[in-house]
Automatic annotation (TrEMBL):
GO molecular function, one term: symporter activity
Domain Major facilitator superfamily (MFS) profile: 13-422
Family from the record: Belongs to the major facilitator superfamily. Metabolite:H+ Symporter (MHS) family (TC 2.A.1.6) family.
Keyword annotations of the record: Cell membrane, Membrane, Symport, Transmembrane, Transmembrane helix, Transport
Transmembrane residue ranges: 25-47, 53-74, 86-104, 162-186, 192-218, 239-263, 275-297, 304-322, 328-348, 369-390, 396-417
GO cellular component, one term: plasma membrane
Function: May be a proton symporter involved in the uptake of osmolytes such as proline and glycine betaine.
Stated name of the protein: Putative proline/betaine transporter
Location of this chain's protein in the cell: Cell membrane
Membrane topology of this protein: Multi-pass membrane protein
Keyword Cell membrane: yes
High-level lineage: Bacteria, Bacillati, Actinomycetota, Actinomycetes, Pseudonocardiales
Length: 449
């Protein structure tokens, strides 16, 4: 009976984390998609389309600036009060901020007030996202058997492409159902308002998940008073490495998620439906690659899978845009599918990797801060940088050079990882889980049951 209860906790934790991640990325994807397709004309003065796109992508990047603050606050709460309580808070904030965007006035209705309100909502989104991912990742990973953390953690990561896929499907349905004119006029608001439905489902499941058994042991031993300070004092090297391992994946991910939409519709003159369908293919490939990457990381080590992924990024950066430039849907699908396999190999194992770089007492703070820093350095302004490079050079292969450069930066960080150090942290967590078991908290057996 105890094993069945523990197995249920593992599954519920994984599903809760999956849905939380899906909502986070549904929210961010509908924002980035709207920024590429609508926000330039809806929230900014009429003028040059490139300038409008740059302003819209700037609002996308601004949200990342709030992530470190959100990560610091949520990390402190998560390390002191618990993973579950903090996750309920971050999820609620994210859902409300996203739905609010669907109710904002446009520039034509409210003038400069409109972009100001958009930036405020984006900052609130960024604040909540700064703490959501780490908590969701830790709930899944700390409930899982240590030798299957890559696999169970990959479910959290798979929430990202699932959220992307869902957002794309909603945008396609709204555009096809309403038509292009109605979509631009008001239809773009529908995906934002639907966030409330996803929020209710995720809250229902998250309320039924038990607290992390690793945190139960931390609470029993008395939580640390200053988790964030301990990150800087005791794990500065791991913080830098974790952040840099995410830079390439995040930057290239946002080239795929946002810049490609603007490039496909604005430069290649493809209709929105075609480019969204191409993105949908990428999302499916990304989802599958996450699971494969996480499972392989359990067998071959985190470092090895990351190395393969970043080498693939560097090698594919130029063929990617060569295929995209054909404007042939099948070749574009091939381009994004291979790119998203590389994303999955460097994103799927991330939950397990970040958890194993920091001790349980300040793990939430360390993982949140590393994610936030990596996001700022990587994806925050990636669409803006890509748009600027294209405008200044006149060739999209300047964006390929940017993609290869950030991949190499992250590859260097990955090579600095020490598998033995990760193994030592897994052993320490096993001891914490034993404490939880003695205190009466069910712990899954080594088969994951």
């Amino acid at each position: 009976m105890e094993r069945q209860s523990a197995s249920g906790d593992v599954r519920r934790a994984a599903m809760s984390s999956f849905l939380g991640s899906a909502i986070e990325w549904y929210d961010f994807t509908i924002f980035s998609t709207a920024a590429a397709l609508v926000f330039g004309s809806a929230f900014f003065p009429a003028g040059d389309p490139t300038t409008q796109s740059l302003l819209a992508f700037a609002t996308l990047g601004i949200g990342f600036l709030a992530r470190p603050l959100g990560g610091a606050v949520a990390g402190h709460l998560g390390d002191r009060l618990g993973r579950k309580t903090t996750l309920l808070l971050t999820l609620s904030i994210m859902g409300v901020a996203t739905a609010a965007i669907g109710l904002l006035p446009t520039y034509g209705q409210a003038g400069l007030v409109a972009p100001v309100l958009l930036v405020v909502c984006r900052l609130v989104q960024g604040f909540s996202a700064g703490g959501e991912w780490a908590g969701a990742a830790l709930m899944a990973v700390e409930h899982a058997p240590t030798h299957r953390r890559g696999l169970w953690g990959s479910f959290v990561q798979s929430g990202t492409p699932f959220g992307v896929i869902l957002a794309i499907l909603v945008f396609l349905a709204v555009q096809i159902g309403l038509g292009a004119d109605a979509f631009v006029a008001w239809g773009w608001r529908v995906p934002f308002l639907l966030s409330f439905v996803l929020l209710g489902l995720a809250m229902y499941i998250r309320l039924r998940v038990a607290e992390s058994p690793v945190f139960v042991a931390v609470r029993k031993a008395k939580p640390t008073r200053t988790p964030l300070l301990r990150v800087f004092r005791e794990r500065p090297r791991q913080l830098v490495i974790a952040a840099l391992t995410f830079v390439g994946c995040n930057a290239i991910g946002y080239v795929f998620l946002s810049f490609l939409l603007a490039y496909g519709t604005g430069v290649l003159r493809l209709d929105r439906g075609t480019i969204l369908l191409v993105s949908l293919v990428g999302g499916v490939a990304w989802c599958g690659a996450n699971i494969v990457g996480g499972a392989l990381a359990d067998r071959l080590g985190r470092r090895s899978i990351y190395v393969v992924g970043y080498l693939l990024f560097a090698a594919w950066a130029f063929p990617f845009f060569a295929l995209v430039n054909t404007a042939a849907p099948l070749l574009m699908c091939l381009a994004v599918a291979v790119l998203c396999i590389a994303i999955g190999l460097t994103f799927g194992p991330q939950a397990a990797l970040f958890a194993e770089l920091f001790p349980p007492a300040f793990r939430y703070s360390g993982a949140s801060l590393a994610m936030a820093i990596g996001s700022i350095l990587g994806g925050a302004f990636a669409p803006l940088i890509a748009t600027f490079l294209l405008a200044e050079t006149g060739t999209v292969f300047a964006v390929s050079s940017y993609m290869a450069a950030v991949a190499i930066i992250s590859l260097v960080a990955v090579l600095a990882l020490r598998e033995r150090e990760l193994g030592d942290m897994r052993a320490a967590d096993e001891r914490q889980r034993a404490v939880s078991a003695r205190s009466g908290a069910p712990v899954p057996d080594e088969a994951g049951r």
